[in-house]
Write a structure and sequence with these properties.
The protein has helices at 3-9, 32-46, 81-96, 120-130, 153-161, 176-182, 188-201, 219-232, 246-249, 264-280, 297-304, 344-352, 366-381, 396-408, 429-436, 438-442, and strands spanning 52-58, 60-61, 73-74, 104-112, 135-146, 166-172, 205-212, 236-241, 284-286, 290-292, 308-310, 313-315, 322-325, 330-332, 336-340, 358-363, 383-385, 412-415, 418-421. The chain has 454 residues and is an alpha/beta fold. Helix 4 runs parallel beside helix 5 (153-161), helix 8 (219-232) packs parallel to helix 10 and helix 13 (366-381) runs antiparallel to helix 15.
Length: 454
């Protein structure tokens, strides 16, 4: 681990689940008619060949985890479930009314919040409601995120019976001191119970989400967390860097002193240690921050070069059109992005008025689309090329100039018109993408808006 390079390149930067990144979307937003037209265009181009994806945001949690930067609403009142599902299904109807044919759904993901906040009966009502106006694509994947303390056997069985074969559980860390600091207290026994139930029922891919860089984490605590994790043999492990952005997310992330966080090379050491332990347990590194068993579809997608990245993270297959349903959800028509209202009351009111609840978005330019392809290639395949005319940019000389220092530091190499990230350069992939990010270069933010890249 090169501590000098870590200190050199550990700067604020985007995570690139999209390009352009949300802070650099057009300040004027997107006209709703433009959004609808790009959705219809993408649907016509891709529904029969690859299907579409659905991301459904279920925002409710019973308690606040202080590390979380997701959009959520804290409540113990489960009476919110029915009206929220009613609104989701109405929103889905608004999209189905745009389509010229029945949508073929390749991918459904339930995110949050805590999707397993919802009862098994309401989860069933939601999924059955979606498929009243849609069919499953010939190859499809349905997945959900669960809280180990809040996921019952009935929920697991119900979702399995509906076609879900993949789930992921937010573990974060097993150390009691860390758990108290982030207000996420769950025992290994509880995780083991819900994990084994998933295996017994028949889930084919189980993921565990861990975070490094949390308050009070040490080498010993990370070793214990990963020892417990690999003992259960999840198919996928996400090992995320904690994004400390309290200036954006408010008091939730101020539940501990910033001096309690591992700093710079200490934090990166926790990642490198985790990576070593995953390798020793037989996991393969996939993209950025993800590890999978060779038998998992994510690993196979990497080998086939079909790995894709969107607002849901890494996925084993690409769909050109992804519809996000629910408060704060982001949709992607490939040609444009649109985000729903962030306030639950505004979201529900607009849907009940028969409107798509979009409050901001971005219509991609031709140049945006080219840069987007380069950044996706780097994030998913650790290489990109501008041999094809369709991938050439007039700014390419300036981009290469910005990459020169990274080349000298052996983070990447360029041969002809092809860029390849070195094995040592994986940790700097966000920095490499930033050299291509023309909107970031042209509009350097005056205040800090991103988490640190390393």
């Amino acid at each position: 681990m090169n501590t000098e390079l870590i200190q050199k390149y550990n700067i604020p930067g985007p995570r690139y689940t999209s390009y352009p990144t949300v802070p650099f979307w057009d300040a004027h937003g997107i006209a709703i008619d433009d959004w609808k037209e790009t959705v219809k265009k993408s649907f016509r181009e891709s529904n029969n060949t690859e299907g579409i994806s659905l991301y459904i945001h279920l925002p409710y949690c019973e308690s606040l985890c202080t590390f979380c930067a997701c959009h959520k609403r804290i409540t113990k009142q489960h009476s919110v479930e029915d009206p929220y599902i009613d609104t989701l299904l109405k929103e889905w109807d608004l999209y189905c009314d745009l389509f010229e044919d029945r949508p073929k759904i390749r991918e459904v993901h339930l995110g949050g919040g805590t999707p397993t906040f919802f009862s098994a009966e309401n989860l069933e009502r939601l999924i059955n409601g979606l498929f009243k106006r849609a069919d499953k694509f010939e190859v499809y994947e349905m997945s959900f995120e669960g809280h180990p303390n809040k996921t019952s056997e009935k929920q697991l069985q119900t979702l399995y019976d509906l076609g879900f074969r993949r789930n992921s559980f937010g573990i974060q860390d097993y150390d009691p001191k860390v758990q108290i600091a982030i207000n996420r207290i769950q025992s290994f026994d509880q995780v083991q119970s819900v994990h084994n139930l998933s295996r017994k029922i028949g889930y084919q891919s189980i993921g565990h989400d861990l975070i490094f860089g949390l308050p009070f984490q040490t080498e010993d605590s990370i070793r214990t967390t990963i020892k417990n994790t690999v003992a259960l043999r999840p198919d996928r492990i996400a090992y995320y860097s904690y994004a400390h952005v309290p200036w954006i997310k408010g008091v939730g992330q101020r539940g501990f002193d910033e001096n309690d966080l591992p700093q710079d090379h200490e934090k990166r050491h926790l990642y490198e240690l985790g990576k070593q332990l995953f390798f020793e347990a037989g996991y393969v590194e996939v993209g950025m921050d993800h590890f999978a068993l060779p038998s998992d579809s994510l690993c196979k997608a990497m080998e086939r070069k079909t790995l894709h990245r969107n607002f849901m993270g890494y996925t084993a297959g690409k769909t050109q059109l992804m519809i996000g349903l629910g408060v704060s959800s982001i949709s992607d028509s490939w040609y444009s992005f649109a985000q729903n209202e962030k306030k639950e009351e505004d979201y529900i009111e607009r849907v009940n008025r028969g409107e798509l609840p979009v409050f901001r978005g971005h219509l991609l330019t031709t140049k945006d689309l080219i840069v987007r392809r380069h950044i996706l290639n780097i994030m998913c395949h650790l290489e990109t090329s501008w041999d094809e005319d369709a991938l050439k940019l007039e700014e390419m000389p300036e981009i290469i100039e910005r990459l020169n220092e990274l080349i000298q530091d052996k983070v990447l190499k360029i041969e002809g018109n092809t860029l390849k990230v070195s094995e040592e350069g994986r940790m700097f992939v966000r920095n490499i993408c930033m050299a291509f990010d023309l909107r970031l270069i042209e509009n350097q933010p005056e205040i800090r808006i991103f988490s640190m890249t390393i």
